[in-house]
Amino acid sequence: MNSEKTLLIDIGNTNLKWSLLQNGRLSPVAAVPHKVDSVELLAQQCWDAIDCPAQVYLANVAGQALEQGLSDWMELRWHKTPKIIHSESQALGVTNGYHNPLQLGVDRWLTLLAVRASESGVVCIVDCGTAITIDLMTTDGMHRGGMILPGLNLMRESLLRDTNIPRVKSVEIEALFAHDTAAAVASAALNSAAALIERSLQEAASLYQGVPKLVLTGSDARVIAEALSVPYSIDSGLVMKGLALLAESEGREG
């Protein structure tokens, strides 16, 4: 039995998440905000207490500076260079639908790989994070493209930035048609996301003769799910599962 541990790192727009893969099992995912003054302190906070991993796989959508800083820390601390994961034209039964495969965010690519491993039908995958992304994959593993819109907080903030609408941290949405301004903004953001998801399912159903399975992931998945009138499932760990699948497939090839 292989007891070596592989460190998997998912750097999103807001949070850094990481997990250890050992013998086909993932440790609980840890998450911390990565917008900090010191990348070195961030790395120490995350990994100072763990032994040097056999391998490191890193997926990043937050820019080169953070990636380079973490890589430098690992080189100095562990003499280990992380493998930076990028979107590919094809992998693990999935074909990238973008004309330029590298333009597809690596987080979206990894969710496609993870879903393909467990679903064989037409699937609509919605990542409800800082941005909301919607991707469609057909039964042959073909990514048919997708959409990107601001996440719930970004939608609200874009309106609040240039208006005098009250800034309220916590808003209760009681109905589609709200009875105060802050709730009206929150309701519009939530229901616009839900409406686009349901429109996406309708369009996919007309194209592929059957309503796709809807899989939600991301920090706002449960909030958005409550506004939907269609069946769904939630899987919060798709990016990490996609990283694990790549690591395991390369281990078998090696």
Key attributes of the depicted protein:
single chain, 254 residues, alpha/beta, six-stranded mixed beta sheet, five-stranded mixed beta sheet, 24% strand
Spell out the helices and strands N to C: EEEEHEHEEEHEEEHHEHEH
Characterize the largest beta sheet: strand count, sense, and whether it forms a barrel. 6 strands, mixed
Low-confidence stretches: none
Overall residue-averaged pLDDT value: 92
Tell me the strand percentage band.
Answer: 15-25%
End-to-end CA span: 16 Å
Instruction: Determine the number of helices (DSSP H or I, runs of at least 4 residues).
Output: 7
Shape: globular
User: How many individual β-strands?
Assistant: 13
Structural class by secondary-structure content = alpha/beta
**Percent range for helical residues?**
25-40%
Radius of gyration: 19 Å
